[in-house]
Amino acid sequence: MEKKVYKDLSREELRQLHAQLSKEYADAKEKGLKLDMSRGKPSVIQLDMGMDIFDVLNAYSDMRNIDKVDVRNYGVLDGIVEAKHMMADIMGVSADHVIVCGNASLTIMYDTVSRSMTHGVMGSTPWCKLDRVKFLCPVPGYDRHFAITEHFGIEMINVPMTPQGPDMDMVEKLVAEDESIKGIWCVPKYSNPQGYSYSDETVRRFAALKPAAKDFRIFWDNAYSVHHLYEDRQDEILEILTECEKAGNPDMVYEFASTSKISFSGAGVAAIAASRDNLDFIKKSMTIQTIGYDKINQLRHVRYFKNFDGIKAHMRRHANIMRPKFEAVQQVLERELDGLQIGSWTNPNGGYFISFDAMEGCAKAIVAKCKEAGVTLTGAGATFPYGKDPMDSNIRIAPSFPTPEEMAQATDLFVLCVKLVSVEKLLGM
Amino acid sequence: MEKKVYKDLSREELRQLHAQLSKEYADAKEKGLKLDMSRGKPSVIQLDMGMDIFDVLNAYSDMRNIDKVDVRNYGVLDGIVEAKHMMADIMGVSADHVIVCGNASLTIMYDTVSRSMTHGVMGSTPWCKLDRVKFLCPVPGYDRHFAITEHFGIEMINVPMTPQGPDMDMVEKLVAEDESIKGIWCVPKYSNPQGYSYSDETVRRFAALKPAAKDFRIFWDNAYSVHHLYEDRQDEILEILTECEKAGNPDMVYEFASTSKISFSGAGVAAIAASRDNLDFIKKSMTIQTIGYDKINQLRHVRYFKNFDGIKAHMRRHANIMRPKFEAVQQVLERELDGLQIGSWTNPNGGYFISFDAMEGCAKAIVAKCKEAGVTLTGAGATFPYGKDPMDSNIRIAPSFPTPEEMAQATDLFVLCVKLVSVEKLLGM
After folding, report:
1. Contact B265 A72 (CB under 8 A)
2. Contact status, residue A61 vs residue A53, Cβ threshold 8 Å
3. Per the CB < 8 Å rule, is A152 touching B118?
4. pLDDT digits (tens, 9 = 90+) for B208-237
């Protein structure tokens, strides 16, 4: 059957197509696939790439950092100085704006919201004492961000994403009008799930926001700052702390980053960057919460990567592993779906995800059909607050864990399900 | 001058004594000591003892645990199974009551209080929504416990410690009467700072408490469970989870422990133990707060210590390092202060501290005098909520960091200051 826009097909053509696709789907189920493209999990080969880090420290290592602090003992609340520099380089900020924490930036974000609930923000009323607290959520976005705000009973407001970032007209208007809006979740570079990077104008408009709430903060999750896929197609974004300073809003942003997808997921080093006043306020709670984070792991990372060039070199090898997986997905999507007008997808220059938009009302059914045939995708709706995609359209594809061959197989099944569900939708089945 | 009870001395004798002690103190200041016995910090030699742990993992290690989980990747929220067993053995509980977390039990305690503030306890009203929340604080106790409750605006009520544990008559009465009492801080074994261990009767009375508040919890910080000083003088305490179960109060206790003073301070592994219902509730927040703690460090610890016998053997070497420091302090205290009735002190079988009680109203002055001559002690009052020792009497001595020789030197100065301040007190100076 020649490639034709689905909605231009006659009912008879659709019926024939449906019969054919149903047969193909039945055959596909027979294959007994068992593939997971649901989460942004690094692959084994990617993890193997960093194994030399375990030879960095041995029984005879000097366990003092450049400040002659014994990293094995208590102390140094905000991270050893060389780890601050490492994380500062990753975020493109200066080291004196950085606190290095434990193994996960997600935990820092959770703790930041939690602290705002119980202790407010730099002297403001604790959010738990307020009748309403709201966050803006660019959609589609990262489900674990939305899970944090939902967990604390914070009301979430969807803001549409564009290839240049969130709809800034809407963001500006809402934060200026509503004092109960206390934050916005952002993944500014290679966004989750679309892989969009905020334009310079978007970043500048963020920095220049005039929120009604003095305790409004931008939660700037710079998770993929060095996670390019290509040598010749790389996004760069403006550094938000500097832009906020320039705009007279130095305290308006918290930036987060980690090495979870550089060294090891769950055993890396995470950090927060913010203005000195923010950091001072954060440390007041942090000094009660901990005597210090794992400085040995900080030292291990610094000695392994040596400097930012070391990280960039590591991430080039990382890109070489990731790129074929992304390309495998793109090839199948283009070959099978181009011109059918039953779906659109992103083709990012970095990050961990491809975002797919099916025809309205089809995402849940596609994910279910994939699951039934052995391919697990992120749950439909997961990219929206409360798990509710109002269009039931968006699906996040995570190519990182399977091999390129598996990704091609999984995507073959995916496009088949997209076609089948789309035809059923058009037939009103 | 012969040894005589100070308060039986005549004013003239006291004046002579004061002159002599003042001269000795002036001489001591000349020495320019610089010693720190303020915190329970492991010494370098103690940290060196565990360096082989860095040879446990290398670039060619199998990074899968016994369940074949790749510890480098995301997943396993509550800790790898062999780490659960390790921490369970340390606490004397069963592994299915354990969640293994990050590097610090202090953080787990903070997070536990914080979660109770924002989300309540197993369905109860969040504490931040209540007018008053109170904690019982056995005194003297651990300053960082008190700092957590103070940070969250929780009112603290002093409960006197005895060599058998907290005054249980008072505990029973208060928790039964007052629904706003939501918790009690306990260090049940080798308590901080006295080194007392709770008697079986005390533990059973704890387990049988009838608190007015359904969301009352015992915060059982079992920090020194394997931290004996002697082979032939070891305390053992009843296992609280089992006792609570037997008494029909299975949910009433959270137990905390870590390897901070077994492997490395700040780079160890920490855990919480509690009933299944408590753990299920905790995991609801934990699954939002993190994708998982550092499983690589968990695996490193388990492969290094192998089993509980490995930990016990390690702690015997630990005791060999610590014992001479404690003995150095005890010898000086006995030699210099015995029979003078100007102070009493504990002689614990384990833990990290010796507790000293000076004459009423003398602790601050003694600590200040020591500081002036180069010996840093824990701030007077630190062992009490709000930093306020109503008797200004208690001083915590932490012998772990200096060498035995330095501890003897430091204690020489300490007893001199105790004598001097006591004489001044008796003279009404």
Report:
1. yes
2. no
3. yes
4. 999 999 999 999 999 999 999 999 999 999
